[in-house]
Amino acid sequence: MRNNTTQQADLFSFSPEHAGDLETAARVFLSAYGTPGLLGREWAGIFEGADPGQRFDAMLDACGFSQDAPGFFAAIHDKISRASADGAVARVCFNGIDLPALFLYHILETRDSSQRLISVDTTDGLAAATGMAVRDPGEIQQVLDLYPVRLSRHVVRQSAVSAAVAAQYLPFAGELDSLGHTLTFDGHFKQGLMEQMYRNRAIFLLDMRCPVYCRFCFRKHKSLRREPSPSRADVAAAVARVRENTEITEILITGGEPLLNPKNLEAALKGLMDVDHVRTLRIATRSLAYYPHLFLHHGRGLVSYLKQQQALCLEKGKRIEIGVHLVHPDEISVQTLDIISDFTASGIPVYVQTPFLQGLNHEGRVLETLFALVRRAGAEIYYIFTPCHPIHGTRKYWSPISVSMDAYCHLRANLSDRAVPKLCTATPLGKMEWHTSGWAVEKDSQDPGHIWIRTPYTRAYFENSAGGDCRLPDTRENPDDTLDVKCLIDMGDDTLFAGSHDPGRVPELPDAADLPPADRIQEQFYRDRCLTPVLAKDPCPGLRRVHKTRVEMEAALSPAAMAYLSDHPDITDIVLRLPDVPGSTDPVGSGISRARACLKRLDALPGRTFYIRLRWEAFWKTPERFTPAHVSELRALAEFSIARPRRIEIETWWLHPGQVTPIHASLALALSQAGIPAYANMVLVPGLNNDPASAVRMARVLRQSDMAFHHIYVAGTAVQNRLNADRPVDTDQVLAMASRVRKECSGREIPLYMVWTPLGEVDFGLNGIPARQMNGKGAAMYMRVLPYGRDYLEAVWPGQAWAGTEETGVIREAGNQKTGTTGLAVRVSGLACASGFRCRDMD
């Protein structure tokens, strides 16, 4: 019989002689990292007027320990030790001020710098490892018998002061709940270490171990986690299978933690680099969150190794990307941000995927903080997975889809568009994005705990890859050959069920003969004063606020614009228009000079972090004129520190894939390697590019050209309002486009489908719902804008008169008695709804 007594270890030992070392560590940390962007806005006022070296003194004063550093650290120790004795997480709060997690982690690591990994199989071992008393030891022992527990000292330190971290890694009695599945993802076709769910990409499971075990993991069962790791011969066999399948262009290298097995990693990278049709090697890791020491030991050896491998990949026309799962802002450490920044500054993209977990990140404000933090380091925000995988023992993390959609609305209203991810569900058939490439059809009539989801996939899609041997249980076929799949998911709101969909006859593409030439249309996106119309008056000449977080402005920064930016700390993104100067013989040098002068003025705003997005006509029109010296000048304008970064991006606009040339691709790659990414928007113009095939080609060309596919604008930009009013894009065309791109392209090639409205951008079908207002003259097309209510409008554009008139139809109160929905709706030009799918009627 095991002994279930709880023997605790003191995680944060303290005695008066430690105070000097702790004070030195605190002063150094706050001097370097004590900015509001890292620690939170609460500290902006506390540190205001203090030199960096005085921030610790300001913290002592605010917390009630003026000139008493020993008492301050003793009080921190007391709060942690008392909470640990009760089996709880400490809240370290003085005078109503919560100490920042980043600061506490640094103090804890100063006293305990161990980086070892710990396996736990008894409650005694758990208490000794964490320093916390174990509540309900009998049930916890059953959990330990059923599911293995692994921890790092890094996670243990964080768990002592963050309930959000502890809830991810420490065992809990609810893991004994048997509702759910043993496994929700194993690939449709699995051979050895290789899994394949999609025709154009595959997974390599290089190692079955993880440094730390997440309690919500879909591979949490002990039988899976105790499988032997593959050999180098197994890696070679998988590489050979990839070489035979020319459809595969991307490999996701994962596990377990693939970086724990350097021999297999080396074999995989070396082998796949020699496969011509493989272009991208994606390495999935969670160690950036729970074991950053993996990257930092041996003089940052792993970071250097991956940079070397990226250089070899680039020589062969390939690239490495790093994907990381991050859940909550409390798990972000300075080490995490530093490693991400190091990778992105050297041209290795890092993208973030986030499982949506009830009780951890189900609130939009939590995700907002998380994504804002990692964006500082240069990470791309990629996916929110909702809901988490319904595995045995994970029920406490499950949430209805409606909750994640509400959180997503918060992000759209309060976060930069460059930090808003895709809202995605991983169904048993494959991923889909809500209300574009997939949707909830109905509840299952036999089992109301399950729902049917329409996916973009067809039986032929899988049979072609599996050689005819393809078992797809719990599916049904639609008239258009797409498959519905049965899922254990709670929608939370029955109005979100969209029903089955028969697109019928999608309107034929109109003749493009009466359109201006594509290059002339595209030129307007760079030369128009503002391509996104808003109802509000410009706050000052040369500056237009188009979102809570974003302004579009001339590069010549006026004193009035400076004052406006200073007074509005919510503004994080500045889109600088850089049209060619008439008569200029050096449009590139002129653009750099204008940007440099603007950035120099922005430096005068203390404590502010800005993301500079250059809408640069020269990039599109004369890419051959950019020289290596120009690229170096642009890199010198950027700042890659995590305390006060200045991230620079190139914003590009395209109409069809033929406009993207190899010269554009070479320039985008050179800029990316200098830490300056380029991203692309596409606008739909019927007769020119609003067919699914155009979107697929654009996605592939942009991926090959090293430009992220950001948005497809369905309707609403100024150019579309001029061109598309009499030749509208039909909503069914958008659904067909999104479905085909999801089915045929990599997830890293997929854009968001957007409608620009005068109140702000909305996600087509998700938080921007097409709506018809019925009247005697027919149906007028509106867009219900869920993220932007009157409170938002008054906060961002105070004093504006927003109510529209019947004649202009600009803005109206919208409601539907059947769905119970209310809010604002805006007239949309150039959008039609032939079948009525996802198109609500307004009362």
| Low-pLDDT sequence parts | 1-8, 805-809
Helical content, roughly?
Answer: 25-40%
Shape: globular
Rg for CA atoms: 27 Å
Strand order of the largest sheet: 5-6-7-8-9-10-11-12-13-14
In terms of structural class, how would the helical and strand content be classed?
alpha/beta
Average predicted local confidence, pLDDT: 90
Major beta sheet summary = 10 strands, mixed
Distance between the first and last residues' Cα:
69 Å
Count of DSSP H/I helices: 29
State the total count of DSSP E strands.
Answer: 34
Report on this model:
The protein has 29 helices and 34 strands. By secondary structure, the protein is of the alpha/beta class. The protein has a ten-stranded mixed β-sheet. Helix 1 crosses helix 5 and helix 22 packs parallel to helix 24. The longest helix has 23 residues, at 293-315. The model is unreliable at 1-8 and 805-809 (pLDDT under 50).
Brief sketch in words of this structure:
With 843 residues, the protein is of the alpha/beta class.
Protein traits:
843 residues, ten-stranded mixed β-sheet, nine-stranded mixed β-sheet, 29 helices, globular
Q: In terms of topology, how is this protein built?
A:
Layout: H1 19-33, H2 36-39, H3 42-47, H4 55-63, H5 69-85, E1 93-94, E2 97-98, H6 101-111, E3 117-120, H7 123-130, H8 137-146, E4 149-152, H9 153-161, H10 163-169, E5 189-191, E6 194-198, E7 201-207, H11 222-225, H12 232-244, E8 250-255, H13 262-273, E9 280-285, H14 287-290, H15 293-315, E10 319-325, H16 334-345, E11 350-355, H17 364-376, E12 380-385, H18 401-414, E13 422-426, E14 431-433, E15 439-443, E16 451-458, H19 459-466, E17 475-477, E18 482-487, H20 518-527, E19 543-545, E20 550-554, H21 559-567, E21 573-578, H22 587-602, E22 610-616, H23 617-621, H24 628-637, E23 646-654, H25 662-673, E24 678-683, H26 692-704, E25 707-715, H27 718-723, E26 729-730, H28 731-744, E27 752-757, E28 760-763, E29 768-775, E30 778-785, H29 790-796, E31 811-816, E32 821-827, E33 831-832, E34 840-842
Parallel strand pairs: 7-8, 8-9, 9-10, 10-11, 11-12, 12-13, 20-21, 21-22, 22-23, 23-24, 24-25, 25-27, 26-33, 29-34
Antiparallel strand pairs: 1-2, 3-4, 5-6, 6-7, 13-14, 15-16, 16-18, 17-18, 19-20, 27-28, 29-30, 30-32, 31-32
